Amino acid sequence: MSTYYKGKRAATYNRIWKTFSEKTLATTVDYIKVSRLYEAPKAQGKHPRILDVACGTGLLLQKLAQLSPQAELYGIDQSSDMLAQAQKILANEPHIHLTQGSLKSDKMTALPYQPASFDLITCTNAFHYLDNPRAVLQSLATLLSPHGQLVLEDYARRPFPFPWKPFEWLIKGVDPQHNKAYTRTEAQQICEAAGLQILAANDFSAGPLWQCWIIRAEVRKSN
């Protein structure tokens, strides 16, 4: 991400990916509305705490700030240039805190957050970058509060007759840090292997080229 989402690509990201972002983030927000986790801490006199992982230019954080104006929002991304775009978009949002950090599995322990500190963690359009998604999810699970949930969304690997192999080859040619795209079933299996319990999962379309999945999960409760 640090090599692709920089300079001009970061500055023009929102314009180039406008339609895709609108569709995927609208679906994500709908999933979050169903969970209503952003309202749960109010009963305890606390503000909800939400972390957007791989927050990019801050578009989802902007929507979450509108959905829950009292929430303490946090965003982390590997690209300083994408975070610079997010700072512009979110300049009037004092409850949003942005941090540069890596999502590589061997660096997850260095994230500057306390265990069990977030009511909601989101990660959109970034699962295909993860070097070890199971390990990353296990680390994110430790950041969830006891009632917290995780919402994941990404584009899916498409089956035949769609020419996925040459299509993904083209993606990697443009963005070498692309690792692997997953089907929803595969993503669910990774979540379960990471100790998460699936609460809801769906496929949806973000355009003729992009089929996507979304998953809402929580830490599996021990019996």
From TrEMBL:
Q: Which SUPFAM superfamilies match?
A: S-adenosyl-L-methionine-dependent methyltransferases (SSF53335)
Q: Which Pfam families did the record assign? A: Methyltransf_25
Keywords, comma-separated and alphabetical: Methyltransferase, Transferase
- For whether the record's keyword set contains Methyltransferase, the answer is yes
Per its UniProt record, what Gene3D superfamilies does this chain match?
A: Vaccinia Virus protein VP39
Q: Per the database entry, which stretches of residues form a coiled coil?
A: none
Q: Which domain of life is it from?
A: Bacteria
Q: Which residues form the Methyltransferase domain?
A: 50-148
InterPro entries assigned to the protein according to its UniProt record, in alphabetical order: Methyltransf_25, SAM-dependent_MTases_sf
Supply the PANTHER family for this chain.
TRANS-ACONITATE 2-METHYLTRANSFERASE, TRANS-ACONITATE 2-METHYLTRANSFERASE-RELATED
Q: What is this protein called?
A: Methyltransferase domain-containing protein
